[in-house]
Every structure is written in structure tokens, then in C-alpha cells.
Recover the amino acids of this structure.
């Protein structure tokens, strides 16, 4: 099962984060719009349902993220950034759970609760900051990125992953190749 979740070039974590971030964002926007008086009854209901979806998606999102985190070598800068990302995303999830609890009575009474809105905005701020750090791991450190421009479309579209060169655990193949090729003594024996 873990090998399926770790298929080269087919990370599961990013699509799950997109879905949960979308659900949380929709929930917070509905809380805000409802608090401003726009269709408050519908927004009170929709917000709780959207945040519920985000919370349901939190478990698989966290599991796939944790698997990615475990593959980043200890002491690597990417591991530090990923650890901060993990802490912020757990905090955001806790705040969204508290938002859900604070809005539950509002759902029943067809209104947006001010405390739920405040918690939702705080949760969203944590989500945005944590998401930015997650993006840094992908776009700065290349975590779970398989850069293989010459891969045929048939292989690239394979849902079970595209092939990749062997690299150290948690290090993208291109980074391993770059590191190996950048060393002036890469082919020379040590004395």
C-alpha cells in the first residue's frame, strides 16, 4: 500500500490538500458572507457543511503528508520547513474543528456565529501560512517532484507512477544527480 502511495511522479498529498483547502476556504467565505448579511441562513448551513468536508479530508491528507515527511532526510533544510508546515497544518485543523463546534448551534439556528467567524479566520490564516510552506517544499526543494521532460505521455499518464532514476531516500532523482555531478571529485577515488 505504501508503495502505491509513493508512486514516482504521482503524489497523493497535493490533490488532497487542494480539496481540503478548497472546502475550508468555501466554509470561511460563507461564514464571512453570512456575517455580512448575505443569505445568512444558507451561508450558516453551507459553511458548516464545507468545513465538515475539509475535516473529513484532513485524515487522508495528513497521512499522505506524514508519509512524505518521513522520507525527507533528517537534518535537511526541507525537513525543517516540512516540520513547521506539519505543525501549522495540525494547528489549522484544530482551529477548523473548533470553528465547526462554534458554528454548530448557528447551523441549527440559521445564523453565523461571530465566534465561529473569528475562529474560522484564524484557522484560515494558519492554513495560508502552512500551505505556503508546503509549497516551498515542492517548488524550492523539489519534494516529491519527478522532473523527467523526456518521459513519453503514456508513461507520464500512468496512474501508478512514472519511472525515475534511483536516488537516495527522500531526495528527488534530479537533485541527487545534480549533487553527484557538482562534486569535482565525484569520479575520483578518495585517498
Amino acid at each position: 500500500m505504501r508503495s502505491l502511495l509513493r508512486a514516482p511522479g504521482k503524489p497523493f498529498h497535493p490533490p488532497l490538500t487542494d480539496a481540503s483547502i478548497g472546502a475550508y476556504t468555501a466554509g470561511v467565505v460563507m461564514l464571512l458572507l453570512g456575517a455580512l448579511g448575505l443569505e445568512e441562513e444558507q451561508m450558516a448551513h453551507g459553511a458548516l457543511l464545507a468545513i465538515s468536508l475539509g475535516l473529513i479530508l484532513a485524515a487522508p491528507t495528513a497521512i499522505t503528508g506524514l508519509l512524505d515527511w518521513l522520507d525527507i532526510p533528517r537534518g535537511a533544510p526541507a525537513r525543517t520547513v516540512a516540520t513547521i508546515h506539519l505543525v501549522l497544518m495540525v494547528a489549522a485543523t484544530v482551529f477548523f474543528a473548533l470553528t465547526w463546534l462554534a458554528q454548530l448551534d448557528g447551523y441549527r439556528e440559521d445564523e453565523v456565529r461571530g465566534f465561529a467567524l473569528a475562529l474560522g479566520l484564524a484557522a484560515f490564516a494558519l492554513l495560508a501560512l502552512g500551505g505556503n510552506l508546503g509549497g516551498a517544499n515542492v517548488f524550492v526543494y523539489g519534494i516529491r517532484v519527478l522532473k523527467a521532460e523526456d518521459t513519453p505521455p503514456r508513461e507520464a499518464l500512468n496512474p501508478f507512477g512514472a519511472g525515475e532514476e534511483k536516488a537516495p531516500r527522500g531526495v528527488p532523482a534530479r537533485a541527487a544527480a545534480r549533487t553527484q555531478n557538482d562534486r569535482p571529485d565525484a569520479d575520483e577515488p578518495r585517498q
